[in-house]
Amino acid sequence: MEKTHIICHYAEIAIKGANRKLFEKQLQDNIKFNLKKDCPNCVEKTQRKRGRIVIVLSETGQNNLPKIEEVLKEIFGLAYFAFATKVDADMETMNKAAIEMLSELEFDSFRVTSRRADNRFLFGKQQMNEKIGAHIVETMQKKVNLDNPDATCFVDVLEDGAYFYTERISSSGGLPVGSSGKTLLMLSGGIDSPVAAYYTLKRGAGIVALHFHSVPLTNRASIEKAEETAELLQRYQRKIKLVLVELAPIQEQIMVKSPEKYRIVLYRRFMFRIAEEIAKLENAHAIVTGESLGQVASQTVENMEVIEEVTKIPILRPLIGFDKQEIVNVATRIGTYDISVQPDQDCCSLFVPKHPVTKAKLFEAQRAEEDLDVENQVKTAVENRDEIIIG
Ligand code: ATP
Ligand code: MG
What we know:
Blueprint: E1 5-10, H1 20-38, E2 43-49, E3 52-57, H2 59-62, H3 65-72, E4 78-87, H4 91-102, E5 109-116, H5 125-140, E6 143-144, E7 151-158, E8 161-165, E9 169-170, E10 182-186, H6 192-202, E11 206-213, H7 221-233, E12 240-246, H8 248-257, H9 263-282, E13 287-288, H10 301-308, E14 315-316, H11 324-334, H12 337-340, H13 362-369, H14 374-383, E15 386-390
Parallel strand pairs: 5-6, 5-7, 10-11, 10-13, 11-12, 13-14
Antiparallel strand pairs: 1-3, 1-4, 2-3, 4-8, 4-9, 7-8, 12-15
Helix pairs in contact: 1-3, 4-5, 6-11, 8-9, 9-10, 9-14
């Protein structure tokens, strides 16, 4: 049976009360945009209907279901979707459609799962289940099994017709990107921060990426990796701004003037100060990092406390409870791993001490900074930033 439509079901959006319209609109926009980009001319139109988004497929779309499936599986805010066939909502036509659709499958037992979003329709869902079910039993000699059926005949009755399908395809869940404000992502060349970006986007927040580099003390590899990662994340957010900030002058000063043990803590205090300034310029309301507790010396709670003392803005750490292997698994699944493991020279690995402090003291960090021209260094770094728009 020709699949003419796609029924898309939201994840949590349905319960979002007054904001619901906005969430739905954002999700619809995101679906439209990504399908247009990756599967041009596949969609005739999209409609919002009774807690669902219905996509009307063009002929090109009907011939490209695998591609469309790939795209829809990665849309945040979608719980699941189904390729469906629309027929008139009268019992005779519906009975026929059920038989035609199920004839394409091999099964012994089945159930019918109906939903009626249009109250004008004559029958309730239970009655529909029974009527269509009885017709299938009679015509195909199959058994009903409500708990563990081999096949399910789904029927959604909406105001313009009945939609039939047999398979619900799980999507990514979460909330539509663009529905939960904007954040500033600290994007390194490492494995973790792209995964932190993924989970931030998954909850509907947009990202502006900030990458610190130490060119000309290092080569440009980390910048190229940040760009490639941002390009990959563009799958979830159509346009990504990548802000590049030079850390080398600050590091050179720290190297000359500060206690070796405190170098990383001091680098990071500067990074957070700069990140907060850029967040303000970008109208972002939180900083996101790929830190997870205890993974490296700078990621103890003591050090985090001393480092984030310099900022007021919330710091989000979506990976705080992840083991490294769990992060690697997600990075592999979303495709950022291969980029992240390419060799680079990270700015933070310049001049690092053999034994960095793991329980930093605030007064020590503050004392070290008395010898540094903190305010001017931050100002200059922000002023000299570069920006790349990806998308
Ligand atoms: P990652 O794999 O994400 O680089 P990591 O385990 O190497 O993390 P750190 O180097 O301590 O850990 O960095 C912790 C977090 O600080 C990173 O996840 C990232 O959010 C931020 N960060 C580190 N280096 C940079 C950088 N060069 N530019 C921007 N952010 C950075
Ligand atoms: Mg790193």
